[in-house]
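Fill in residues.
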């Protein structure tokens, strides 16, 4: 049984094409896996950097709040203001009046209240 040269050339060409297709598919799979790992590690790095920035921001804000809490003049002012508020006959009426003044100020840009109590 003799095989014609044309058949041998066709078979060998198909075999080479099949090997190239297999090699191409393998290269695509390896590239996809490599890209997934690269993107994953890049995303992880970005997430870690974002967490570090958030932590830093929270710590700075806590530090500012701690400084405020240690300010004796501020504590005295808040204590005095709370005492004044406790002595009001109708605190809700006072709050409503101040709210109206603030709303009016935001609309007109000028303060028209005379006495706050």
């Amino acid at each position: 049984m003799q095989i014609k040269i044309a058949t041998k050339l066709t078979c060998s060409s198909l075999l080479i094409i099949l090997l190239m297709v297999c090699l191409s598919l393998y290269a695509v799979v390896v590239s996809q896996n490599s890209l997934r790992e690269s993107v994953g590690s890049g995303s992880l790095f970005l997430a870690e950097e974002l967490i570090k920035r958030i932590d830093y921001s929270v710590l700075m804000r806590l530090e500012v709040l701690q400084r405020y809490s240690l300010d004796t003049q501020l504590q005295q002012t808040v204590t005095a203001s709370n005492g004044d508020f406790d002595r009001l006959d109708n605190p809700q009426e006072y709050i409503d009046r101040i709210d109206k003044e603030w709303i009016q100020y935001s609309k007109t840009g000028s303060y028209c209240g005379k006495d706050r109590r």
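Helices lie at 5-70, 72-86, 91-108.
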